[in-house]
Amino acid sequence: MTPDATDIRQALKACFGYDSFRPMQEDIVRHLLAGQDALVLMPTGGGKSVCYQLPALLLEGTAVVVSPLISLMKDQVEALQANGIAAAALNSQNDDTQNAAVRRACAEGRLKLLYISPEKLQAECGYLLRDMQVSLLAVDEAHCISQWGHDFRPEYAQIGQVRRQLPNVPVVALTATADKLTRQDIVEQLRLRAPRVFLSSFDRPNLSLAVERGYTRQEKDEALAEFVAARPGQCGIVYCLSRRTAESVAQMLCGEGVRAAAYHAGLSVEERGKVQDGFINDRVRVVCATVAFGMGIDKSNVRWVVHYNLPKSMEEFYQEIGRAGRDGLPGDTLLFYSVGDVVQLSRFADESGRREVNIEKLRRMREYAEAVVCRRRVLLSYFGEAVDHDCGNCDVCRNPPRRVDGSVLVQKALSAVVRAGQQVASGTLAHILHGDAVPEVLSGGYQRLKTFGAGRDVGLQGWRDYLLQMLQLGYVEIAYNEGNHLKVTQAGADVLYGRARAWLVAAEGRHKVARPGSRHRVTQGAEEAGSLVEALRRLRQQLADEEVLPPYVVLSDKTLFLLGVRQPVTLEQFGGIEGVSEYKKRKYGKPFVDLIRRYLRGG
Ligand code: ADP
Ligand code: ZN
């Protein structure tokens, strides 16, 4: 007998502690319970796990979940076990005894969910899978099956075979990234049968978006330190372009008293594991990483993501900011944008095997960074989603740019370029215009130019910003093979000689990076509960340490925050809070309720 809507909702609350479904979740659950195949496309943090975990609990037998990364499996299994659900993982990291125990549990039908690596799945095809009752096959990170995807894994190619062996089992493929080609490929290779495609919006309204332009290294460091200081106790990730930058940014933050660490491919496996574990357990607050970081973790309480350098593509950017705010509480994202990055990334793209594609991807990324309309609209339209309103949670919406007639500014800059024989790079040009007698200016004799110091009033950072805009508007171009010198284009010449006007976005009103995006809006009312939340957080850490679990697996940040606001004083009330399942109510209810009672008595 298939469960009805009430059964499904009750199970959602009892097993996971959630009162309601997120968009699409319920339809997907029902679809799978009806024995049908599905392809689920949902952004990171959208809540994909529940889509197959809930059917797994309601169906007879064991659901088999294929997952590409051992750390991901570990996270998921821990989270399920923390809700008292029988789940285990079969992979190469277990020893033989452990794997034997897991096999036995499967064969005896004691597990509701079995996580398995693609290699093991293939190896077990003829054995274990035959001995157990499979209720459902879920393929997580399904884009790994496609060569078109950005993360192709040959081991995934074999999963389709398994389908043949389990003809009557519903199959669900889940991914956060899939363009049309990848989507088709997933359906074909997994041999999905008349699958229904669930494509949810890629919008993450709880993430604020902001860009800061034209900062030097030092200014970025200062702004970042300020940004981190404005978010006490919060965990975040700083993405950097190079290992060296990751190291130096981590060092800078440590110098500010922040528990920060670097993470990149140059570290040993042990060192990386240590940083990742530290981050998961809230001991490391900030990880300064190259793109390698974040793939294999499900940490739900990453509160912010900063891009210290421009990412190579919107896909990369979206995936990385997506690691913030998975628990649904506000998360802040900030991107630093500078000419230096454009120069370097353009060179990478130029030298890469797929020049055209990569140049185009970089161009679209720059469009986001340079946007003077709502950034969320730019982001979502890149992913093919039409949006008809401004978001109100990006820097452009909050602080709309003011356009000014910048013809004179452009003329000053371009005439300096011409007078310097088109032999200066953007950084030097800013110093010339600002009138700084720095070595690179003096060595070229540029202090003798008529335009030296012609724009002192604009400020150095203002000039960097305007030069970035001039580049975007096509008034200058960069000769990457000639020391990155700026060259005046035809469009630039038109402005220089007064044949056309230039409209620029006023460069004033910056340095607002420290202010948290939408936090005040959503967490209002928690202010006075601040000290209680802190006490709740300490209790959570203590309980997590005792069980050697990540704190967010014990209770999510959101649940903690709700406890602080609602202040439940009975087990019943505690159980009503979002994120508190039956199991967690029984397990953690008493210590939390006791703490809240003591707090309310003023003790
Ligand atoms: P994904 O795998 O799509 O990145 P997850 O399945 O890890 O997302 O879910 C992201 C977060 O959302 C988790 O912290 C989870 O606890 C929470 N979540 C999922 N579904 C719900 C729901 N129906 N109500 C409240 N929180 C939810
Ligand atoms: Zn906006």
Structure description:
It is built from 28 helices and 18 strands. It has 603 residues and is an alpha/beta fold. It has four domains: 5-199, P-loop containing nucleotide triphosphate hydrolases (Rossmann fold, 3-Layer(aba) Sandwich), CATH 3.40.50.300; 207-398, 3-Layer(aba) Sandwich (Rossmann fold), CATH 3.40.50.300; 403-505, Orthogonal Bundle (Arc Repressor Mutant, subunit A); 521-601, DNA polymerase, domain 1 (Orthogonal Bundle). The chain has a seven-stranded parallel sheet with strand order 3-4-2-5-6-1-7, sandwiched between helices. Strands 8, 9, 10, 11, 12, 13 and 14 form a seven-stranded parallel sheet that branches. Helix 12 links the parallel strand 11 and strand 12. The longest helix has 19 residues, at 582-600. The radius of gyration is 27 Å and the shape is globular. 46% of the residues are buried. Mean pLDDT is 89; it is low at 518-528. It binds adenosine-5'-diphosphate and zinc ion (ZN).
